[in-house]
Amino acid sequence: MDTPLLVLNLKTYPEATAGKTEPLVRIAKEVAEKHKKHVIVCPQAPELARLSKQFPPSPHFRIFAQHVDVVSQGAFTGSVAAETLLENGIPGSLLNHSEKKIGLENVRKTIEHARKVGLELIVCADSVEEAKQIAAFHPPCIAVEPPELIGKGVSVSTTKPEIVTHSVKEIKKISPRTVVLVGAGVSTAEDVAKSRELGAEGVLLASAYVKSRDPKKLLEEMLLQL
Predict the structure, then answer these.
(1) How many CB atoms lie within 10 A of CB 34?
(2) Among this protein's residues, is 145 annotated catalytic?
């Protein structure tokens, strides 16, 4: 997975729903390509196929899903299969976000299946301890996000910098090729710069971008610090 990396999780915010999603994705792609920095955007599931055709991948921009299930294609009503994402032009997905926890055993199975079919994963961990457990499965990327800071506007890199440094150290010790991102409260360019200074290879954020009055300006500022 290319680094440094900035991941934008659009969640299910009304500001990133239906016709409001396209401007956010367009801005992300344009700014990523302008600055030649790697950006991944994760829209809601019903919009993935349409947006992937409208905004095809480029060397610095891709669209990922927010979740993928531990199933293959078949009789699994309501599930999201890795193969189906790939067939619709979606090369990767978030997994195990604190708002969509699936349990360690399902994380392992999903990582193994995704590796088999060629789907990239950004696997979320809510603590250094969980990150270490996930690192043993050697995913392409782990994003460490303390859930108590998500959406609070207070960055983990500022309030708990030891989580960033410790996460990078412990994950790399177990799985050197796994990319390490940090998230939770990342809201400013200064937060991005601090995260990088502490050793993270990128950041994961959501509300700061989706709810920004000027998302293009915010993203420009963040990518300059990436």
Answers:
(1) 11
(2) yes
The predicted pLDDT at position 81 comes to 97
Token pair recorded at residue 10: 């659009």
- Domain spanning 5-225, CATH architecture: Alpha-Beta Barrel (3.20)
Per-residue pLDDT band for 161 (boundaries 50, 70, 90) equals confident
Given pLDDT bands bounded at 50, 70 and 90, which one contains residue 163?
confident
**Annotated active-site residue in 97, 113, 130, 201:** 97
Task: Average the pLDDT over 68-74 and give the result.
Answer: 94
| Domain extent listing, the chain | 5-225
Residue 151's pLDDT is what? 56
| Burial 184-205, CB ≥16 within 10 A → b, else e | bbbbbbebbbbbbebbbbbbbb
Instruction: Give the pTM.
Output: 0.95
Nearest to 73 by CA among 113, 42, 38: 113
Opening angle at CA 173, ends 171 and 175, nearest 5: 60
Active-site residue identified among 47, 130, 145, 201: 145
Which H or E run contains 105? helix 104-117
Is position 148 annotated as part of the catalytic site? Answer: no
